[in-house]
C-alpha cells in the first residue's frame, strides 16, 4: 500500500465526517428541550435498528431485544430540565471542528498501522477465554461475600450486565436475581424482567413484576414492562389497559409518552 495517497485521503475523510457539524454551526442556534432531544435520539436509534435488521445484521430476536433496551432507556430518561445555550459552547464546537482532524492525523501518524490485518480467530478465542476467566473470578469472589452486603448487589449487577452483553441471558437473569435478593431496587427488577422477556420466559417475568410493582407502584419501567408481558403473552386488551393507565398518569412532556402510544397502536 502506498503511504502518500493514504494521508490526504484520511484527512479528507476526517473533514467530511465533520462537515455536518460545521453546517450546524453555520446555522442560527436553535434551542431544544430535553424531551425533544430524547425523542429525536429514540427515533434515530429505532431507524438504525430497522436498517440493521433489513440488512441482515440483526435477526428478529436480537432486534426485539435491542428495541426493548432503547425503549427502557427512554423510559428512564429524566424529566424536562429546560434548554440551555451559550456562546461558549459554540466556540468550543468550532475549536473541535478544527482541532479534531489535526489531532487525529497527528496521533495516527505517530502510532497508526493501516496495513495491520484483522485479529485471527485464535486471538479472538483467547480474548473470549480470558473474559470468561475474569467473570469466573468475579463469581467466586461474590460467593465468598455476605449475601446482604452492598458490594454483593453491585457485583452481581455488573456480572449480569457482562453476561447480557455477550448474549448469555440465562446467566444474566441469575446474576440479576442474586443482586435483587440482596436488596430491592426497582431499576434492577426492571432489568431482570427485561432479560426474562428477551429470553421468552414470560411467566417468570410476570412473577418478578408482580412482586416488584407493589414496592414501586409508580415506577414507569415496571409498569411498561408489565404491559409488554401481557402483549407478548397474547393478551392485547390487558396490555392496552395497562399502558393507557400509564399514559394517563404521565406528564405531557414525558419523553417516553410517544413511544408507549406507538406501542398501543401496534396492538391487534
UniProtKB/TrEMBL annotation:
User: Which one GO biological process term can you cite for this protein?
Assistant: cytochrome complex assembly
Q: Which domain of life is it from?
A: Bacteria
Kindly list any coiled-coil regions of this protein.
Answer: none
* InterPro entries, per the entry: Cyt_c_biogenesis_CcmI (IPR017560), TPR-like_helical_dom_sf (IPR011990)
Write the record's keywords in alphabetical order, separated by commas. Cytochrome c-type biogenesis, Membrane, Transmembrane, Transmembrane helix
Transmembrane region positions?
Answer: 6-26, 92-109
- In Swiss-Prot or TrEMBL terms, this protein is called Cytochrome c-type biogenesis protein CcmH
Q: What is the lineage of its organism?
A: Bacteria, Pseudomonadati, Pseudomonadota, Alphaproteobacteria, Acetobacterales
